[in-house]
Task: structure prediction
Amino acid sequence: MLRFLFLTLLLCIQFSVFGRSPEQVAEWLEESSWSTEAQYNLGVAYMGGDGVPTNKPEAFKWFKKAVEEGSAENYWRLGICYDGGQGVAKNPEEAFKCFEKAANKGHLASQVRIGLSYIEGKGVEEDEPEGYTWLFIAAFNGWEGGENFEKSMGEFLEAEVIKWAQQLAHQKIKANGDLVGDNYIPPTEYSPPSEERIALTREGAERGHVDSMFLMGALYRDGWGVKKDGEQAALWFNLAARQGDGSSAFYLSQMYLNGEGIEQDRVVANVWATVAFAKRIEGAGEILTMLNEELTEEEIDRSIQILTEINKKHPEMLGG
Result:
């Protein structure tokens, strides 16, 4: 089965362009019985009239169906429908429930939304301290208005209230690694991540949170806030890739391909490029094409064997 997948990937190295043409919409309709991605894309198409006539009730129907899969983005979209009365009657309470589910999965805009909802009492009973807590969580996750928010807090809130909200925000993040989600903003050489942020990311990674594993790999690969360490980077990327994170598989492939901080191994690079390509990660196809031309048939067979063995232990790696 994996040999077939591998060969199919080599023959079909191209990426879908999500331009919503009528043909693309027709393809999504064909896939909609099993693909939540197709369901979500249909919702976007009908909401914006892109490739099909605008039909907000139809868009709502597809967003509602897609949310059964439970992704943060799908909950966010459904919340927007309820909040603005797009394709369905306005329902602030249902909107809040959707935003809350997305926020708990690390969706940054939803975290800001429920913070403001608590403060304003929109769709939920007013609770200003809880609202400030969520805004601090969003600020920690890279909310663009977060810095100004934290500075302005001192103008109308007592220091004890601010401290309490910050502490509660950190407790929530420690208790639920998913709150961090994929909101990580890569630091620059002028603004490395804080020790606190690195510690929280490490805690999440050690608990098995995939996004946190990826972030630890990125930190060690580039030496952001920690000493550059290729072996540690490969370790964390490897753990995340085995759980199905395509970006980690792609970076791991690059590291093995070029010998970046670890011993060069083009066979293993081929394994992880295959996983990344299966996850539709941009750039993975180019690596596969190059390696397919350079590796011997025996080496390709070895990479398929390695991929098969890993996938037996971690079926989630190629799933989804």
About this structure: The CA atoms of residues 45 and 51 lie 7 Å apart. Residues 194-320 form a domain with the Serine Threonine Protein Phosphatase 5, Tetratricopeptide repeat fold (CATH 1.25.40.10).
